[in-house]
């Protein structure tokens, strides 16, 4: 029988390349998702890490996109409030007290005749500053102490656990009323210091549990067997793999600290006039809620939206970093 003609190798390769180029967008994305899953490989055979997988999931999460846009806007007006609000938040006119919306004052005026719109915009600076700095302080202090306790264990772990139990027993608002009532400073630092003082035990406990879990992995044991120092093991092997739960809790806690600052300022022990704060404005507008509800509505709405944005961001980050939810 005559031999069947064989297809040249070049034709086969060309056919394969043409088929790959003819793949639809949905098919290409499916193949990419299959290769890029946990434990898969990306372009050029590179393995995907937890962080790359998390970032890919976040970019496709509408909750993350919406909350991130809100937070970016808050950061922008915190850095450059004059870009969208003209005038000084401390400039008041008693002749316009409790007036409604008007030219240059879309949110109306409060009981002292201050522009509610301008004060609401400038109040974001204080709230975001307190929330970010308090979260950074809590994350650093809590992570360091928790990591040391989880890694070394023994007496250090026992002592730190008892100390955290003592701090957990202190009511936050009551502690703020007691500690901040004797502070005469009118800056944000006493409020931030108070939040760090009572907030680090939560992060510390999270970091401790995460480090205890990670240090039992084989690559940590191998590094120890090769003679790596404790500091190198903690910084190079344990910290990058144990920091995810801390990031999630700290992101959610940031919104909580913003609400706590407003609560303490409302009670009169946080920030005090002439500082501009949503909590101060809410407290000042409360007696006039019947005659000028707009003076209470706008700073309260801005506070609620900010806290909600950070909580939504934390939930999205948690879903992206938790392998069990994939």
UniProtKB/TrEMBL annotation:
<protein>
    <submittedName>
        <fullName>Peptide ABC transporter permease</fullName>
    </submittedName>
</protein>
<dbReference type="Pfam" id="PF12911">
    <property type="entry name" value="OppC_N"/>
</dbReference>
<keyword id="KW-1133">Transmembrane helix</keyword>
<dbReference type="InterPro" id="IPR035906">
    <property type="entry name" value="MetI-like_sf"/>
</dbReference>
<dbReference type="InterPro" id="IPR000515">
    <property type="entry name" value="MetI-like"/>
</dbReference>
<keyword id="KW-0813">Transport</keyword>
<dbReference type="Pfam" id="PF00528">
    <property type="entry name" value="BPD_transp_1"/>
</dbReference>
<comment type="similarity">
    <text>Belongs to the binding-protein-dependent transport system permease family.</text>
</comment>
<keyword id="KW-1003">Cell membrane</keyword>
<feature type="transmembrane region" description="Helical">
    <location>
        <begin position="296"/>
        <end position="317"/>
    </location>
</feature>
<dbReference type="GO" id="GO:0005886">
    <property type="term" value="C:plasma membrane"/>
</dbReference>
<feature type="transmembrane region" description="Helical">
    <location>
        <begin position="128"/>
        <end position="151"/>
    </location>
</feature>
<keyword id="KW-0472">Membrane</keyword>
<feature type="transmembrane region" description="Helical">
    <location>
        <begin position="242"/>
        <end position="260"/>
    </location>
</feature>
<dbReference type="InterPro" id="IPR050366">
    <property type="entry name" value="BP-dependent_transpt_permease"/>
</dbReference>
<feature type="transmembrane region" description="Helical">
    <location>
        <begin position="163"/>
        <end position="182"/>
    </location>
</feature>
<feature type="transmembrane region" description="Helical">
    <location>
        <begin position="63"/>
        <end position="84"/>
    </location>
</feature>
<keyword id="KW-0812">Transmembrane</keyword>
<dbReference type="GO" id="GO:0055085">
    <property type="term" value="P:transmembrane transport"/>
</dbReference>
<feature type="domain" description="ABC transmembrane type-1">
    <location>
        <begin position="124"/>
        <end position="314"/>
    </location>
</feature>
<dbReference type="InterPro" id="IPR025966">
    <property type="entry name" value="OppC_N"/>
</dbReference>
């Amino acid at each position: 029988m005559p031999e069947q003609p064989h297809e040249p190798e070049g034709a086969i390769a060309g056919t394969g390349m043409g088929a790959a180029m003819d793949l639809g967008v949905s098919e290409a994305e499916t193949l990419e998702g299959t290769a890029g899953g946990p434990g898969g490989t990306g372009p050029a055979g590179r393995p995907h890490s937890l962080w790359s997988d998390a970032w890919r999931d976040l970019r496709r999460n509408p909750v993350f996109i919406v909350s991130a846009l809100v937070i970016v806007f808050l950061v922008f007006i915190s850095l450059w409030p004059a870009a969208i609000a003209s005038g000084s938040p401390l400039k008041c006119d008693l002749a316009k007290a409790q007036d409604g919306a008007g030219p240059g004052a879309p949110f109306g005026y409060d009981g002292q005749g201050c522009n509610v719109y301008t004060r609401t915009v400038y109040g974001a600076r204080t709230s975001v500053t307190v929330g970010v700095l308090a979260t950074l302080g809590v994350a650093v202090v809590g992570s360091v102490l928790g990591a040391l306790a989880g890694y070394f264990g023994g007496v250090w772990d026992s002592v730190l656990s008892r100390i955290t139990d003592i701090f957990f027993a202190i009511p936050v608002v009551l502690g703020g009323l007691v500690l901040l009532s004797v502070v005469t400073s009118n800056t944000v630092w006493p409020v931030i210091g108070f939040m760090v003082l009572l907030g680090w035990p939560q992060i510390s406990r999270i970091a401790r549990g995460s480090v205890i879990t990670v240090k039992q992995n084989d690559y940590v044991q191998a590094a120890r067997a090769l003679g790596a120092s404790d500091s190198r093991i903690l910084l190079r092997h344990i910290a990058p793999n144990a920091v995810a739960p801390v990031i999630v809790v700290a992101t959610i806690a940031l919104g909580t600290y913003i609400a706590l600052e407003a609560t303490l300022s409302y009670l009169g022990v946080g920030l005090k006039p002439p500082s501009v704060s949503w909590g101060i404005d809410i407290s000042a507008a409360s007696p006039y809620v019947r005659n000028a509800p707009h003076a209470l509505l706008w700073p309260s709405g801005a506070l609620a939206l900010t806290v909600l944005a950070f909580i939504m961001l934390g939930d999205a980050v948690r879903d992206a970093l938790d392998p069990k939810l994939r």
